[in-house]
Write a structure and sequence with these properties.
The complex is a heterodimer of chains A (158) and B (310). Chain A is of the alpha+beta class and 158 residues long. Chain A has two domains: 95 residues, Aspartate carbamoyltransferase regulatory subunit, N-terminal domain (Alpha-Beta Plaits); 51 residues, Aspartate carbamoyltransferase regulatory subunit, C-terminal domain (SH3 type barrels, Roll). Chain A is 18% helix and 35% strand. Chain A has four helices and nine strands. Chain B has 310 residues and is α/β, with parallel strands linked by helices. Helix content of chain B is 36%, strand content 14%. Chain B has ten helices and nine strands. In chain B, the strands form two sheets. Chain B has a five-stranded parallel β-sheet, with helices on one face. Chain B has a four-stranded parallel β-sheet with strand order 2-1-3-4, with helices on both faces. Chain B is globular and about 50 Å long. Classes of the chains: A alpha+beta (158), B alpha/beta (310). At the A-B interface, loops of A face helix 5 of B.
Amino acid sequence: MSQEHNMRRVTAIRNGTVIDHIPAGQAMRVLEMLGLQSSTTVPVSMVMNVPSKKKGTKDIIKVEDRELTQNELNRLALVAPEAHVAIIRAYSVAQKLTIDLGEEVKNVVRCTFSNCITANPREPLPHRLKIYKTDPLQLRCHYCGRPQDLVDVIHNLL
Amino acid sequence: MSGLITMDDLTNDEILSILDDAERLLPVARGEAYLPLLQGKILGNLFFEPSTRTRMSFETAMKRLGGDVVNLGDVKTSSVVKGETLYDTIQMVDGYTDIIAMRHPRQGAAQYAQDSAEVPVLNGGDGAGHHPTQTMLDLFTIRQAHGRLEGLKVVLAGDLRYGRTVHSLSHALTRFGCELIFASPDVLRMPGEIVEDLSSHGATIVETNDLLGSIDTADVVYMTRIQKERFADEDEYTKVAGAYKLHASNLDGVKESMIIMHPLPRVDEIHPSVDSTRHARYFEQAFNGVVARMALLCRLLEIEVPGGEA
């Protein structure tokens, strides 16, 4: 099945963001990380486990009337570091965004450890988690070193 | 280097070179010579939780080298109790001092302080995290006894879960190719992420509940205090902690050169009968805190200790 066929599973969007090449089965997590599950009012379409040349299967999300910010991209990188993100304007790709997980995420997620110095909300320095491993994802707090996995990350997004 | 937050801030060569400096500073630490290398420098001693040895040895180290010390004082009467953030406290002390030594109940506080400060920060213990200056004095004591750090068999016993001294020390010993035996009750085992890290760095680790069965082939037995409050009830504590005590009568089969260490304070995990054996090193170890911290203060303040190789 072709790429075009995948895209036609849901209708083309006029304006918004298409997130392609999400690892199969992770689309719900991406929605959760981007806060698109409950609080959004814009139309969101999702296809899961569709064929992919590179990975066998993949998920795709289309968000209408909303362009992802760099901060949202940083969150997305934690679940889908190889995803392709395109900003759509008037049915055309206006911009392709690249995701770079980098070595650290800053002010994206807070440390889970209740005795970490950053647990005091009045401390002003940024929350910093270093990428320790990617498969499976493990982050470690820059300050206290406590390891955190994807589930921790999802529950402690800023 | 900016500060010393974890042992990862030092290479093996730096560790050995600081231990060499410490060796040369021994007469100064003993008060047999006066060497005012740090004259005009001020150490900020910020102890947000109780400390006897670490605070006093930092203060002694600074004064033996001609420097001066300002103390945070009792946290209960400082601005911390008014709700001042660590960031603000550090901003203030950063302006007053040339170097900071800090202990804080929250993990990660030392790194946070270093990120907030211009002057170097020495981590004197952050929650259950790291205690690298203790590790330096531990390594000094081990090298003093065995003439080397490489390839020793070291038993770490007692509270390995919350004991920050054993966390930093086990990382350092792994880097010198030591074989590690972790002897602890199940509830106080070394945290999984630390065992994972050590293993990924090629450590040889045995985890056991049997302290006395592990000491006969050891070069170093490093004891720590098991705290009652870690257990659900006192009966459980009494039952478990009893297996992590050393008495002179337990030492019949050990190597002659084996040394027993303890970061102190001890409660009853080392019986006083051990004190007069050839193996007891914990009081020398406490003294070595001064000399190791002298060497670290000089290194972080970029003051050369005379007598080293050019």
